[in-house]
């Protein structure tokens, strides 16, 4: 069986190829209508455009003079006759200007028999090879090393030079029509972004776009999977112009015992030792009775910026919005945008005659950026009635603040604000974490607090909160870019019971997560949410699933902080990374 597979793979990738030079291109691709023009197509187009609009202007001017002078319109001079003939000629040309390639495709389009004849003569230059893999991506594959890549020729378009690219096994069979579309994309006649709408087949569009990209760039995408993904699920909401998907391994840390329940935490990462370290922290917490979490706030924010003619006028709107007597009116307008979006507060900041208004609202189980943005837009439209001189410069003025480290998020919070704590027994610190309570407390003070202050950190008073947040975000379909503010965290470690035990906590004011919308609907990410028991919207209490996910994120950060700090305190950080995150090969003995 294995030998058969190797033989079939060899037979697929074995064909020899020859380069086709520029002189042979016209023979292969056939003549174009534009080849009959004495000048380049763009110069001809410019000439006829100029003639058309010039004669139109001339004729209109002449007719206007005749009307003013009461001269009969049918009396024409030689210049009028020449202008009329030039108008007719240029008009006829312009009728076919935008359709010259379209007319070519209809009139001069080769028949299927012609395509078949060309294919028979060009078997050795066939660019599309069936994928040699016989199992889906992610399953166990034959570990036999693949044959070295062959070099094949790409038939260039009319304006491109021939290129040589690596041979790329293509998993999807492309027919003659696909080949025509690929050539059209390569030639720049069909926009790549329009393939989905034109073909009404997302997977086929991705395959064609991928092949066109390889021919244009002469770069192989053989290592980027195409099969095994639902491209319909991302259309119009997750990713544009897809050509495949990136595989990221997902590990499991835990169980994490949090608020009396155990959770197996999925982490998508390529950093060795990260899952193992978090898992050790989960073990220490579980042995000691688990961790407890408290949700302090739950509010997504959006802060538009508006401008007035004077600072005094801007201050009047600030006073209006911050007046409790007006909050009910404004919140009613805001809440019309969604069943779940409920305005909680408005905080304003003035910079000269520019006003920044930070709206905070609950968003149910959604992360809520779109929800709060719609509500803010409703309020801005409403305010235009009483403040017609208000100039809205942007729906977001960076006072929100989204995907940027900021003091306002660190102090006021954004998304879910969570505190998570645990008490670790002294014997667990010594036997599981391999260090001491005293060493952990001292290291936390000098590293996470003093060291971060020396570095001028903003919300970064921790050891590796960003590692955990990013890994869980990618696994569960969150916005990875929001790791910036979601990783704001301060880790505290204090001795208890006369220094025998350790109290450890993490305070995270800006965890931005959701369990509906965005990437949470994709199959893999949805499975990870289901593993945690927070898939979709909560049927009992709106927002409960998203809040629980935020608590799990904080609990996982707590476990990872505990383990990493212990590794540093005991001097085991380098050894553990050499074991799990680095090759043990002696590079000094490897031949250059």
Automatic annotation (TrEMBL):
Annotated keywords: Endoplasmic reticulum, Glycoprotein, Isoprene biosynthesis, Membrane, Mitochondrion, NADP, Oxidoreductase, Plastid, Transmembrane, Transmembrane helix
EC number(s) per entry: 1.1.1.34
Transmembrane portions of the chain: 39-60, 81-100
InterPro entries xrefs: HMG_CoA_Rdtase, HMG_CoA_Rdtase_cat_sf, HMG_CoA_Rdtase_CS, HMG_CoA_Rdtase_eu_arc, HMG_CoA_Rdtase_N, HMG_CoA_Rdtase_NAD(P)-bd_sf, HMG_CoA_Rdtase_sub-bd_dom_sf
A single Gene Ontology CC term: mitochondrial membrane
GO terms of molecular function: hydroxymethylglutaryl-CoA reductase (NADPH) activity
Principal subcellular localization: endoplasmic reticulum
Major enzyme class: oxidoreductase
Keyword Membrane: yes
Catalytic activity: (R)-mevalonate + 2 NADP(+) + CoA = (3S)-3-hydroxy-3-methylglutaryl-CoA + 2 NADPH + 2 H(+)
Keyword Mitochondrion: yes
CDD domains: HMG-CoA_reductase_classI
A Pfam short name: HMG-CoA_red
Pathway: Metabolic intermediate biosynthesis; (R)-mevalonate biosynthesis; (R)-mevalonate from acetyl-CoA: step 3/3
Topology of this chain in the membrane: Multi-pass membrane protein
Subcellular location: Endoplasmic reticulum membrane; Mitochondrion membrane; Plastid membrane
UniProt-listed GO biological process terms: coenzyme A metabolic process; isoprenoid biosynthetic process; sterol biosynthetic process
Family note: Belongs to the HMG-CoA reductase family.
Protein name: 3-hydroxy-3-methylglutaryl coenzyme A reductase
């Amino acid at each position: 069986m294995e030998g058969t597979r190797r033989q079939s793979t060899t037979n697929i990738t074995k064909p020899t190829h020859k380069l086709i030079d520029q002189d042979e291109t016209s023979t292969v691709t056939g003549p174009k209508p534009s080849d009959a023009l004495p000048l380049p197509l763009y110069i001809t187009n410019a000439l006829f455009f100029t003639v058309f609009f010039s004669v139109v202007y001339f004729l209109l001017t002449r007719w206007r003079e005749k009307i003013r002078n009461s001269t009969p319109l049918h009396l024409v001079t030689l210049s009028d006759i020449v202008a009329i003939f030039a108008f007719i000629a240029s008009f006829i040309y312009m009728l076919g200007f935008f359709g010259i390639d379209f007319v070519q495709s209809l009139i001069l389009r080769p028949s299927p028999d012609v395509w078949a004849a060309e294919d028979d003569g060009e078997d050795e230059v066939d660019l599309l090879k069936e994928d040699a893999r016989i199992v889906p991506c992610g399953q166990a594959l034959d570990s036999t090393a693949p044959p070295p890549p062959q070099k094949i020729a790409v038939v260039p378009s009319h304006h491109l030079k021939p290129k040589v690219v690596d041979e790329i096994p293509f998993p999807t069979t492309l027919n003659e029509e696909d080949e025509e579309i690929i050539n059209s994309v390569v030639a720049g006649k069909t926009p790549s972004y329009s393939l989905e709408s034109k073909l009404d087949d997302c997977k086929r569009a991705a395959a064609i776009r991928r092949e066109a990209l390889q021919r244009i760039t002469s770069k192989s995408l053989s290592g980027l999977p195409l099969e095994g993904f639902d491209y319909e699920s991302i259309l119009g909401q997750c990713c544009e112009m897809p050509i495949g998907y990136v595989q990221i391994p997902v590990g499991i840390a835990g169980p994490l015992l949090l608020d009396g329940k155990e959770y197996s935490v999925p982490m998508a990462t390529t950093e060795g030792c990260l899952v193992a370290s978090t898992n050790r922290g989960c073990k220490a917490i579980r042995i000691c009775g688990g961790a407890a979490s408290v949700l302090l706030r739950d509010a997504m924010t959006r802060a538009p910026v508006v401008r007035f003619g004077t600072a005094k006028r801007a201050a009047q709107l600030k006073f209006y919005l911050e007046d409790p007597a007006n909050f009910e009116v404004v919140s009613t307008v805001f809440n019309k945008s969604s069943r779940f979006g409920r305005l909680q507060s408005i905080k304003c900041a003035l910079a000269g005659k520019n006003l920044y208004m930070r709206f905070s609202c609950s968003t149910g189980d959604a992360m809520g950026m779109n929800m709060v943005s719609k509500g803010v837009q409703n309020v801005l439209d409403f305010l235009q009635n009483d403040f017609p001189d208000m100039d809205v410069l942007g729906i977001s003025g960076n006072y929100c603040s989204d995907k940027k480290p900021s003091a306002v998020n660190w102090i006021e919070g954004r998304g879910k604000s969570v505190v998570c704590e645990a008490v670790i027994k002294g014997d667990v610190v010594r036997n599981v974490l391999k260090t001491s309570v005293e060493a952990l407390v001292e290291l936390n003070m000098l590293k996470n607090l003093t060291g971060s202050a020396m570095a001028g950190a903003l919300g970064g008073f921790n050891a590796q909160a960003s590692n955990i947040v990013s890994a869980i975000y990618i696994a569960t379909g969150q916005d990875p870019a929001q790791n910036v503010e979601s990783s704001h965290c301060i880790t505290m470690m204090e001795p208890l019971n006369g220094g025998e035990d350790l109290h450890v906590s993490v305070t995270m004011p800006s965890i931005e997560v959701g369990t509906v919308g965005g990437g949470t609907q994709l199959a893999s990410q949805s499975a990870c949410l289901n593993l945690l028991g927070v898939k979709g919207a909560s049927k009992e209490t709106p927002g409960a699933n998203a809040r629980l996910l935020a608590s799990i994120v904080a609990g996982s950060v707590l476990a990872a902080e505990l383990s990493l700090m212990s590794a540093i305190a005991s001097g085991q950080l380098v050894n553990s990374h050499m074991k799990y995150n680095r090759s043990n090969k002696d590079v000094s003995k490897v031949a250059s």
